[in-house]
## 1
Amino acid sequence: MSQVSVLDVFEDMPAQDSTSFPDPVGAEGGDCVVCGDKGSGFHYGVYSCEGCKGFFRRTVTKGYVKACKSGSKCNMDMYTRRKCPECRLRSCRAAGMRSDCLLTQAQCRSKFLYRKKTEAPKSDHPISSPNQEVPVQSPSNQSTGTDVQQQQNQVSNISNQSEPCSLGQVSVPSTSSTQPFETVPEPVSFSQLNDSNGTNLLDEIMSSFMDFGSENPAVLTRNDSTGSDDMLSFLALLANDTQSIDENDLDPSIGLFDEVPATTPIQNNSSIEHAENLLSLQRGEANLVVQANVSASTNGQASEENSESSTSDTPTESVNQTTNTQGLKATLQLSPKHQSIDEEQATEEHTCSLLFGEGPGKIKRIARPDAVQNLSPEYQAIVSEISTFRKKTFARDHKMMSDLFKRSSQDISNKERQARFVAHMGVVVEKMVEFVKTVVHCFQDLCIEDQIAVVKASFFDCCMIRVPVVLANFNNGVHVLQRILQAVHTEVFNATLMKWYEGMLDLKIDMTTLDLLQCVIVVSPDRPNIKGRDILEQSYAQYIECLTCLLQSRLPREPLDVSTPAQ
DNA sequence: AAACGCTCGTTGACCTAT
DNA sequence: TATAGGTCAACGAGCGTT
């Protein structure tokens, strides 16, 4: 049976303006504009019957239809509509039905999770134990969506695979000391990431990311189905799940919080060392990695911590750390009332000292030391690889950020500030390309068009989650960012953006979780015009599962899982 | 070749959720 | 209230058997 993909059908049809919602097509109370049957309302942008509504939803979700045998010119009415799915789809498209009105998998998933959470009140022990062997599956009596069910089954199947280094199509390097990113082939270079029509990737990304002089920031109003909205809804859900987490709720018997002075690159990197050490310990390596982290703490004490102290805090230290729970927002001086305009007019030297040495701010991150150990070997490998990559690039990235901050403190015009910001974002794009090439396993399996589409579509999302967390590593970082953004965005947009950043900071997300989340974003299969969707879906399920396991291990009492309690 | 039964995918009316 | 997605009985195509 020959089939034709939905994308092919849509490409043949007249292109629709994807940047704005046209007026709904058809007359309310009339007939279906697709087949003439009795309409039931506006569905996906046109007045249509239940049949065409359901057909369009199923077909777009499925991604293909039976090919027409009569030259794609079948007449379409309420009697012949069942005869030729391809022509029916073309009629739906011609009538103005919009595929971007369908909820994406991520949105469905968010909806499912929200429903599940509201229907099942939080129990005392929703998760029996942070064990990766707990199957991720939904009870049949709670399943409300076949897609989600299939997705979870897929996740479950992947998690049950026996081969530790083979996850479907995704190969996972071993946890040996070799640096996996050195052997990863280079599927696409930054210079290659241009459209065939000559559009520059950076220009395109920046045009959607920035709104120079625009009264209506494109970022906030865009509806081009790049997946950002989906990720925002997902993150909103994630934020909703974790916002009530109190650090004191966590088990104090274990070193719960990695109190990271936000002053030196080395100390900011300590959570990476945590993971490394934990993995070393898990492998039974006798030699503990000695962390010679030279502290430049506020009292001037130089501290040396070895892996033992970093992986198993003493009870006394834990108590001290858990009781010292100043709000992150206050620490970062998010509120302008804590930071006068005069204070920000610091000299370059003063800025540097704030960034690297004498700042009082300390960031508390959730970093449950046993979390990584509870992961399955393949997920440990993923975490290890991410950590290794970040460890390798940390110093360079930190210097890049600090250079940006230093320059932002200089007394320059807004135009110059804009130019510098654009230049900086160019580097950020390159950095992201390097990340996906090195860390995201399935990336090399995608065709060049898909690689480009994936990077383009996920760049904004990644920036949205990374910026606030990265800035949390810098004293006064949020405030410096405000100065930069004021030069490139409108006031309304910046207010919304800062509100989003504030919410992200409330998550107290650690770098490993952040990088895992970035992997999830990058491989999100909801991107438009992706040919290798299957590849992305497999990888997506894998990263989701890994992220879920990690969060379950770190926050075992919080119902942020997509699985059910152990039977 | 025709009739029959089985499986599985599709349809659409109706439902719930937001 | 409008419009998403979900559900499930009914339907029909395809296939093997008689």
## 2
Amino acid sequence: MNYIDIALKILKDNGYKQTKPRQKVLEILDKSNESLSAYEISDKSGKKLDVVTVYRVLETLEQNNLIHKVVSTGKYRKCYISEKSNLNKCHHNIICKNCGYIEEINCEGMNIIEKVISSNSSFKIENHVLEFYGLCQNCKLD
Amino acid sequence: MNYIDIALKILKDNGYKQTKPRQKVLEILDKSNESLSAYEISDKSGKKLDVVTVYRVLETLEQNNLIHKVVSTGKYRKCYISEKSNLNKCHHNIICKNCGYIEEINCEGMNIIEKVISSNSSFKIENHVLEFYGLCQNCKLD
DNA sequence: CTCGCTGCAAAAAATTTGCACATTG
DNA sequence: CAATGTGCAAATTTTTTGCAGCGAG
């Protein structure tokens, strides 16, 4: 099952309706290799989706862990989901500074880092944001 | 020498003028335990500083590595600087979800993580953003 | 005295809200 | 048909730009 179908199923399971705007936003994000803003998504829909609707759809999708906000830009990117569970996966991205291409990565070491930080500070750490920036395979060759 | 004096000296050394707005913004950020937006800084100045000026001062301070933008909120926080060098220090923050208190931390492990990611992906990684969220000592007791 | 910096006005961009109507289940 | 979700209008918030005048060096 592909990203869109899984996402729609999760929405349904969580009591959300499967509407055309939601499906359309998922399709646009699924196709894109880079993160997109609400306005960019509205544009890519041929303006069929109002920006306000896009904002609200994005909020819903994010709450259900179906998409991920790139914190340095505020734009959105689909993220890995599976039929079994989409709960609290630790999402990290590498973002190409040149073309915007984003790849989701697996970063096992962070739980260790969190433990080290926890014991070196007086904080109780609950979560973190981590984004890497650089050049993707194509752009580093130029 | 304290934060403000060092910062002003660095500005001077880099060819920037030492102006009252710059000094005032530095003072406000120095006093604050949490990150502040341009509007909050303007307010804390008793509206003596125009928001536009604050935006421009913040931009200058950031370019000189004297302050640091909290990427998840867009607000600014002073960061560690020394008379000798303020170049490209790797800044990481722990941010209290409850009260907003921010502490700058030293996070040695990240260069190792960057190397691991580099070798596991096709990207040439240049930098990263890392922020931790949790509860500070005071707030975790409540 | 000169160049860089600030303040004011205004524009542009990003995000949120209210409400009537449409759509899903 | 009942509850959610959408579209439009409008308000709010955030950030940027232009330009005249001020002030640091």
